[in-house]
């Protein structure tokens, strides 16, 4: 924008500022606005159309017939005004009637005008109205005039939002659809259905004030924000130098390039010159870039655009001081959370009563955030592309993970169909819940122990709801993940005791902390905790606990005290060699002696187990098994190590199948050895919660499963319809000479045998 353009926008803005500050009614303000703009741009006509009840209504005009106000209405996509709103794009025409979308409205008397320019009035990246000017003579408006119009449109969006004149996205039940319905697909991470309003984990900033009181002050705010942002980016880049490979580095370099781009800073400065606040200026420049970029059909550039959006949002957050995530601000209604990706701790920060579903751009089946969501009973759809572009904050969403779909801004017919399906699913769930009193016994009389995985205090309720046999895996690190500081012994002891109390005489197996990997703790030293190239194979779980004896001792004491007078079952994660198990056990025993010497009441009995997650351990079972009271296979980690495939990698999420000969043969061997040694063996990974997989495991000799609570009903139903001898024989045959597709062969077998697979 040239200086004169900035000056002319500024003049308009100064006058608009007075109008907005006045106490007159919204309609009177709009009437003044069209006069000010018309005069300033020497246009015979200036009109404002606003989106109300899904259509664009002429709200104020100078130059068109006044009788047309509140009478002329255009649908989205209809006429020039409707096209501008639908495409969120500017039109600048010397001959309006010659445009293919032109729709003539006789009541307006607009036939007298030839040239036409219109800009969308944008709120939350969506058009909520159109500001248009028209001229009798046939000429295109100049670039600077269009710039001025766009700047004014920004200010108008503040005015009309404050006055509540338009359909606000997500403005409660009375909300009227403002743009089209869309359906997107993704990848099933946690099954289920949910209805709610879209909430961005990193919310977009809403700009409260657009017109500056003091231009110099605004300029300083932007300078300071730029400094802070550059500092952040520099820190990110320098930290990433350690062990971070090509792609990541390239992204950061581009970030850096944008962050230091002088053109960007200059454009924001010019927007401030025109009278905008710092926030509005950043957004104004971003809108302009967005519009330009949209015309370029180049995926690479589109990616860069994403970076620029990220940076622009970062700058906006800094300047506006709105720094938190949606969790910190609190959910106000039933919500579906949208994020690129999330850590388990970030997810746990949300209010469980209002968080109904999660949609991720990335995500994988056994990433801990997925496991946490499963434990919370929150459906998750992963790997949905472009969600940020398609969804606006507050949009109504229907999430149906069973169909891998997300419907954005549904029609009422879609809502009805969804409700109907939800009802059927709830009935099915009720049917499974009715199984809670039924015992999981195969048709030929083999009792299968079905336990649940848990990690939060509330999870123990699942025992009564599902009728499970106990808790086969209590992930103690969840308590560490949800607190801002390292949990103290007293806090830990209280949780463990509550869990044991709630379980009554049903057994509970506590797993000592498995932190590290994708469960990094913000309060552990960065050096020791972060920046690992392969965190899943890094300093985590028992490895970390044995090095940080203090942490393990506190937990040991808390567990021993909590289980006073009962049996304590404890197991260690990521045991890789037998001596690690020995050390962990010795540490617990020394704490037992310590407590005993001080007269504390102790558990009647302590059972020690190991998790088999690292394949190397399978080669030394002859050494390990005699030391164990039980063994539990963590198939989530085990498969990632067997296949050398990161369990959290979105691209690898479906590449390797649990029902592959390599995994099943491996599990068969381990199971046979444990059974021969008389050591109880269980599977506690996600695999055991899937009916077809669980059926295969039973066929391998596994008769103890610890699974996600929602799976207990379906697994019980499967067990009760299964003949164990028959599945054992089928597995022996299938693994002797595996077919190309073992999964479909197993499914065919199950169907032929009428095994219930939910
Ligand atoms: C596993 O790895 O299978 C397991 C049960 O532990 P986690 O998922 O917590 O790593
Ligand atoms: Mg594990």
From TrEMBL:
Reaction catalyzed: L-histidyl-[protein] + phosphoenolpyruvate = N(pros)-phospho-L-histidyl-[protein] + pyruvate
Entry EC number(s): 2.7.3.9
Subcellular location: Cytoplasm
GO-annotated biological processes: phosphoenolpyruvate-dependent sugar phosphotransferase system
Highest taxon above the source species: Bacteria
Pfam families the UniProt entry points to: GAF (PF01590), PEP-utilisers_N (PF05524), PEP-utilizers (PF00391), PEP-utilizers_C (PF02896)
Any one GO molecular function term: metal ion binding
EC class of the enzyme, as a word: transferase
Organism lineage string: Bacteria, Pseudomonadati, Pseudomonadota, Alphaproteobacteria, Sphingomonadales
Keywords, comma-separated and alphabetical: Cytoplasm, Kinase, Magnesium, Metal-binding, Phosphotransferase system, Pyruvate, Sugar transport, Transferase, Transport
Classification via SMART domains: GAF (SM00065)
Entries under Gene3D superfamilies matching the protein: 3.30.450.40, Phosphoenolpyruvate-binding domains, Phosphohistidine domain, PtsI, HPr-binding domain
Source organism of the structure: Sphingomonas turrisvirgatae
Stated name of the protein: phosphoenolpyruvate--protein phosphotransferase
Presence of the UniProt keyword Cytoplasm in the record: yes
Family affiliation: Belongs to the PEP-utilizing enzyme family.
InterPro entries according to UniProt: GAF, GAF-like_dom_sf, PEP-util_enz_mobile_dom, PEP-utilizing_PTS_enzyme, PEP_util_C, PEP_util_CS, Phosphohistidine_dom_sf, PTS_EI-like
Domain spans labelled GAF: 25-170
Main location: cytoplasm
Cellular compartments per GO CC: cytoplasm
Names of required cofactors: Mg(2+)
């Amino acid at each position: 924008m040239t200086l004169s353009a900035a000056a002319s926008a500024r003049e308009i803005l100064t006058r608009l500022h007075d109008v907005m500050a006045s106490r007159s009614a919204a309609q009177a303000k709009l009437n003044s606005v069209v006069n000010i703009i018309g005069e300033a741009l020497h246009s015979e006509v200036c009109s404002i159309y606003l989106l109300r009840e899904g259509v664009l209504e002429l709200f104020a005009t100078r130059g068109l017939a006044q009788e047309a106000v509140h009478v002329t209405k255009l649908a989205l996509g209809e006429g020039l005004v409707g096209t501008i709103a639908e495409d969120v794009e500017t039109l600048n025409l010397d001959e309006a009637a010659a445009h293919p979308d032109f729709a003539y409205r006789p009541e307006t008397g607009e036939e007298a005008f030839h040239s036409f320019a219109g800009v969308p009035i944008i709120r939350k990246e969506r058009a909520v109205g159109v500001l248009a000017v028209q001229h009798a003579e046939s000429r295109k408006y100049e670039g600077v005039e269009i710039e001025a119009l766009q700047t004014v449109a920004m200010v108008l969006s503040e005015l009309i939002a404050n006055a509540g004149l338009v359909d606000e996205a997500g403005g409660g039940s009375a909300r009227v659809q403002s743009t089209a319905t869309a359906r997107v697909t993704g990848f099933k991470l946690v099954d289920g259905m949910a209805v709610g309003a879209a909430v961005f984990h990193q919310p977009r900033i809403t700009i409260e004030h657009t017109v500056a009181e003091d231009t110099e002050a605004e300029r300083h705010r932007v300078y300071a924000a730029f400094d802070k942002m550059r500092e952040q980016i520099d820190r990110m880049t320098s930290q990433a130098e350690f062990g971070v490979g090509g792609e990541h580095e390239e992204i950061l370099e581009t970030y850096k390039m944008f962050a230091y781009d002088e053109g960007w800073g200059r454009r924001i400065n010019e927007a401030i010159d025109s009278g905008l606040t710092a926030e509005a200026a950043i957004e104004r420049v971003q809108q302009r870039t967005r519009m330009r970029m949209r015309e370029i059909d180049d995926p690479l550039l589109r990616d860069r655009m994403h970076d620029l959006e990220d940076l622009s949002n970062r700058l906006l957050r800094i300047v506006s001081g709105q720094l938190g995530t949606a969790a910190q601000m609190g959910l106000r209604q039933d919500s579906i959370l949208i994020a690129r990706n999330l850590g388990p701790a970030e997810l746990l920060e949300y209010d469980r009563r209002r968080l109904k579903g999660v949609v991720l751009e990335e995500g994988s089946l056994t990433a801990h955030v997925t496991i946490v969501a499963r434990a919370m009973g929150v459906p998750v759809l992963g790997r949905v592309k472009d969600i940020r572009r398609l969804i606006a904050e507050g949009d109504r969403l229907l999430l149906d993970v069973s169909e891998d779909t997300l419907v954005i801004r549904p029609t009422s017919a879609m809502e009805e169909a969804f409700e109907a399906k939800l009802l059927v699913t709830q009935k099915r769930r009720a049917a499974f819940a009715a199984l809670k009193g039924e015992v999981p016994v195969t048709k030929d009389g083999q009792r299968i122990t079905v336990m649940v995985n848990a990690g939060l205090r509330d999870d123990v309720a699942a025992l009564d709801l599902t009728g499970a046999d106990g808790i086969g895996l209590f992930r103690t690190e969840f308590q560490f993940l949800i607190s801002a500081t390292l949990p103290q012994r007293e806090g830990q002891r209280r949780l463990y005791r509550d869990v044991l109390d709630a379980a009554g005489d049903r057994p509970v197996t506590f797993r000592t902390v498995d932190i590290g990997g994708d469960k990094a703790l913000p309060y552990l030293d960065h050096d020791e905790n972060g920046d690992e190239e392969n965190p899943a194979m890094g300093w985590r779980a028992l490895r970390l606990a044995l090095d940080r004896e203090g942490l393990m001792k506190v937990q040991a004491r808390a567990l021993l005290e909590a289980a006073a007078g009962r049996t304590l079952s404890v197991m260690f994660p990521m045991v890789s060699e037998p001596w690690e198990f020995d050390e962990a056990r010795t540490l617990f025993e020394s704490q037992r002696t310590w407590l005993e010497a001080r007269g504390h009441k102790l558990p009647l009995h302590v059972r020690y187990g190991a998790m088999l997650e690292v394949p190397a351990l399978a080669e030394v079972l002859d050494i390990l098994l005699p030391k164990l009271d039980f063994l539990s296979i963590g198939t989530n980690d085990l498969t990632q190590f067997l296949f050398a495939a990161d369990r959290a990698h979105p691209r690898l999420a479906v590449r390797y199948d649990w029902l592959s000969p390599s995994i099943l043969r491996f599990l068969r061997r381990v199971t046979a050895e444990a059974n021969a040694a008389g050591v109880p063996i269980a599977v506690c990974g996600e695999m055991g919660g899937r009916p077809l997989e669980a059926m295969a495991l039973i066929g391998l000799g596994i008769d103890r499963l610890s699974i996600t609570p929602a799976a207990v009903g379906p697994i019980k139903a499967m067990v009760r319809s299964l003949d164990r001898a028959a599945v054992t024989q089928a597995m022996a045959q299938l693994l002797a000479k595996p077919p190309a597709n073992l999964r479909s062969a197993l499914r065919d077998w199950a169907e032929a045998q009428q095994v219930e697979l939910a």
